[in-house]
Structure formats: structure tokens, C-alpha cells
Amino acid sequence: MLMALNKAAVVMEGEVNPDGSRVNKWKLVSIQEVEEVKCLARVFPIWAAGILGFTSMAQQGTFTVSQAMKMDRHLGPNFQIPAGSLGVISFITIGVWVPFYDRIMVPALRRVTKHEGGITLLQRIGIGMVFSVLSMVAAGLVEKVRRETANANPSPLGIAPMSVLWLVPQLVLMGLCEAFNVIGQIEFFNRQFPENMRSIANALFSCSFAGASYVSSALVTTVHHTTGTHSHPDWLTNDINSGRLDYFYYLVAGIGVLNFIYFLFVAQRYHYKGISVLPQDVELASKGELGHYTAAKCEDST
């Protein structure tokens, strides 16, 4: 379908000045401009899947802290873990996993798959999405136990007699999600765009995070307005012992599963960029019917 865009670079009578410049840049474009549009069109479905993939990450700095505030954060008699510092566990996971992956996993996978990177970039992103779903499921299970424990053992501050270290599994899984998904997307965008579009590639990745924040905010607002009744607080009420934060985690996990199915659909139809020139373009160029503005083509290759 994207082949139709090539017609925009076909020179028609009266569209080129005697000096070779274009009469109207909106009617005749260069090959480079056509290929840039093609790259954006190919990458857009993958980029859209990344937005929902990052939505689960947006919960880490908010509701995970809320959970920690209602758990026993003591390590020994004199030290209490700050609730907001638990996110460092994800960063430690990334710092440990990435060198292990690059130095040990990639060479081992390369011998099996015969692929330079061990696995493809889209496979790496997909694995990250799986870890994000697992992280939300783990968070929901821990929250269910934490809430039941807190309600069974009421205290003035509503703190459950349950160690905050129970939050470590979900944070480790989220760290693995970031190690695969975030790094995979950065590499994917930078490799699939031409050299002159690297700034757009980086901007798209940043827009994924921004979009995920908006989706997360919309989701939280929707849950607030649809799950509460006159006799029961909503899932995300300020007192999480009275709410159902575990249901919210399961909801995010379910959205992640649907997003992963969509990602598999578009990833199976994606072909990685190769530097090539189509035979029909060569024929048009030999006839002088294709614009002389040249560039490395962003074409499909297997």
C-alpha cells in the first residue's frame, strides 16, 4: 500500500523549472521525503503499542508507594525504608540484567538463532511487554494479601503487619520490563529511521512516555468515577485498605494482554528496514521520470 507514495516523486510536465528546482514542493517531492513518510507509516503501529506498554510503568511511582506506606518498612530496629525509594529496586535490576544480557545471553542466543542480536528488536520489545503484565499480576496478588492482612489486623495507621519486601517481585519484574522494552524501543527507533531522522526517532520514544502518562491519568480518572457507589468507595480511594487496588492492577494487566495481542499482530507484519532501491524506481529514473533528489531508501527487507 505504501508503494503508492512513490507517485509523489514522479516528475510530470511543467513541475520542474529549467534550473532543475521544483515549481511547487507540495506537488513534487524528493525520494528522500517519500521514504521518510514511509518510515513513519511503518513504525507508527509499533509506536502505538508502546504507549500502552508503558502504562504499567506509570503505576510504579504512585500506587507502589501507596502500598509501601501501608506496610512494615523496618529493616532492623532502627532503620525504616523510605517508601519513595523502593523504585531503586527496578534500577538495580536494570543495572544487573543489562550487562548479563549483553555479555552472556546474547552470545548464547546468537549461536541458537544465528541472529546478530540474539533475538530481534521486536522480540525484545514483546518480552518486555510480557514482563510488564507479569509485574501487574504480581502487584495485584501482593496487594490482595496486604489488604486482607491489614483488615484482619487493624491498627491506628492501617499498616499491615507484612514486610515491604513483598513488593520486591513486582519491582524486579518491572525492571526487567524496562530492560527489554525501553532499551529495545530506543534501539528499534534509531535503527529503523534514516540517519537524518534520528531526532524524530528519539522524539517518538519520548512521546510514548508522554502518551502513557496521559492514558494512565485517563484510566485512573475513569476508575474513580465508575467503580465507586454511595455505600462503597471506589477502587482507588485514598485509604487503600478500603479500596480495591488489586482490581486496578488486574485491569492494567488485562489491558496489557490486549495490547500484547495487538503488538503480535503488527509485529508479524513488520519488515525491518534495509537499504535498497526498487526495480521500478530504477526504471523510472532511467526514463527521467523520477525526481533527482536521492536518499537511502527505507525499504522492507527480510
Automatic annotation (TrEMBL):
GO molecular function (one): transmembrane transporter activity
Subcellular localization, as worded in the UniProt entry: Membrane
TM region positions: 39-59, 79-100, 121-142, 162-183, 203-227, 247-267
Keyword Membrane: yes
Top-rank lineage group of the source organism: Eukaryota
Topology within the bilayer: Multi-pass membrane protein
Pfam family membership, one: PTR2
Signal peptide from the UniProt entry: none
SUPFAM superfamilies: MFS general substrate transporter (SSF103473)
Annotated family: Belongs to the major facilitator superfamily. Proton-dependent oligopeptide transporter (POT/PTR) (TC 2.A.17) family.
Species per Swiss-Prot/TrEMBL record: Vigna mungo (Black gram)
UniProt cross-references to PANTHER family, sorted A to Z: OLIGOPEPTIDE TRANSPORTER-RELATED
Keyword line: Membrane, Transmembrane, Transmembrane helix
Record-given protein name: Uncharacterized protein
Cross-referenced InterPro entries: MFS_trans_sf, POT_fam
Gene Ontology cellular component terms for the protein in this record: membrane
